[in-house]
Specification:
Shape: globular
Bound molecules: zinc ion
CATH class of the largest domain: Alpha Beta
CATH topology of the largest domain: Rossmann fold
Structural class: alpha/beta
CATH superfamily of the largest domain: ANL, N-terminal domain
Number of domains: 2
Distance between the termini: 25 Å
Strand content: 25-35%
Strand order of the largest sheet: 5-4-6-7-8-9-10-14
Largest sheet: 8 strands, mixed
Number of strands: 21
CATH architecture of the largest domain: 3-Layer(aba) Sandwich
Length: 392
């Protein structure tokens, strides 16, 4: 019998449409001096563009309310973009999402997102602690050490990418170390149903949430596992990819978020992720009433996610340009055994030579994801990134 989740904040999570509208209207007025009807007339800020805006106006592009001294932490995400952690206890609003996933106060939770310079580890950490969970800050420590820690410290919860959870469970079996995971919150990469089914067969309830470092949690799954309820404390718009107008439910569009944090609120921040609202009755058997997002359907433009990290074709190109011997390159992303694999094909200029290991290291330093480099022939007009993954 798998665990169940609970509503952490029934008042907000079950409000009817009119109450939700009034609630968001009030937050929008308090934070942005705007009404909901005026929101659509405001320009969007693209995540892709944030790095440039920050460079022009260091370090936060003028979007911070109040002094840096009031913040808790400062991060640098690949891109690079600077990300503040404001003073709120659960700054990224993970509490409701973890509770829906089945995390409970007193759970010992292995948190496997990185605590180094990028915010992922701290995002989950803050939410878990706000819920009363006890965190093992495993970050990106080596697998064997994590299996030992989870086993000996009797972790009942897991937070991180679903593929790494599978790796831990399988390694635990090989090492003959019992793992006690009952509940997992999956984020930062796709959760294919085949992987969820496999993890559930180990007795682990696995639910996912959708968050970005800048906006926090925007949506999270409930027991129905059919889409992610929008977080009640932010505004999520799905905007048509061509016109920028609100997309009809069922139609794909870019996810654009508006938040009300007192230190770093964002107005119409475009994530670059593509999703769609699920049409039809919003009230869900779980009791929540917020509309649901389909999973993430893709990315607008150049960026994609591999091994839980955002990677941009333009970043790769900048690194590759430092090696004049390389005439052309292409990144190829594949997936086997629920693991992402990144490989670079490089085509050398006639007669030129290059140390592939050196290129791989330079790419890893910038991209933060390890990939192999090998010689290849790249067809004219081929995309800079060939994402061959399928998500069944
Ligand atoms: Zn639901």
């Amino acid at each position: 019998m798998l665990r169940e989740g609970v509503l952490l904040n029934p008042e907000l999570e079950t409000q009817d449409a009119a109450t939700r509208r009034a609630f968001l209207e009030k937050r929008l007025r308090e934070t942005w001096s705007l009404g909901l009807d005026e929101l659509g007339g405001k320009p969007i800020t693209r995540k892709d563009n944030l790095s440039k805006l920050q460079e022009e106006n260091l370090p936060f592009a003028g979007l911070l309310k109040g002094p840096v001294a009031r913040l808790r932490r400062l991060f640098v995400s690949p891109g690079p973009t600077h990300v503040p952690q404001g003073s709120a206890i659960d700054y990224w609003r993970f509490g409701m999402a973890f509770s829906a996933a089945g995390m409970r106060p007193g759970d010992v939770v292995l948190n496997t997102l990185s605590y180094h310079l990028t915010p992922g580890g701290f995002m989950l950490d803050a939410g878990l602690r706000s819920l009363g969970c006890v965190v093992i800050p495993a970050g990106t420590a080596e697998t064997v050490a994590q299996v030992r820690a989870a086993s000996v410290l009797q972790a009942t919860g897991y937070a991180g990418t679903p593929s790494f959870l599978r790796t831990l469970v399988l390694r635990g079996r090989e090492m003959n170390l019992p793992l006690h995971f009952q509940v997992a919150f999956a984020t930062a990469e796709m959760l294919p149903e085949s992987l969820r089914t496999e993890l559930e067969s180990f007795g682990i309830r696995v639910l996912q949430g959708y968050a970005t470092a800048d906006l926090g949690v925007l949506a999270y799954e409930c027991s129905e596992k059919s889409g992610m309820h929008l977080h009640p404390e932010c505004i999520v718009e799905i905007l048509d990819l061509e016109t920028g107008a609100p997309a009809e439910p069922g139609q794909p569009g870019q996810v654009v978020g508006t938040t009300f944090d007192k230190d770093y609120p964002l107005l119409r921040f475009a994530t670059g992720d593509v999703s769609a609202l699920i049409p039809g009755e919003a009230r869900c058997p779980c009791g929540r009433t917020a509309p649901r997002l389909k999973g993430i359907l893709g990315r607008v433009g150049d960026a994609f996610k591999v091994k839980g990290m955002f990677v941009r074709g333009s970043q790769m190109e900048e690194v590759v340009k430092r090696f004049p011997a390389i005439a052309r390159f292409q990144a190829v992303v594949t997936r086997a055994e629920h693991q992402d694999h990144l490989e670079y094909l490089v085509e050398l200029a006639p007669g030129a030579q290059v140390d592939f290991a050196q290129v791989a290291e330079a790419l890893r330093e910038t991209i933060k994801v390890r990939g192999e480099v090998r010689a290849g022939v790249i067809a004219p007009g081929a995309p800079r990134v060939d994402d061959r993954r399928t998500w069944k």
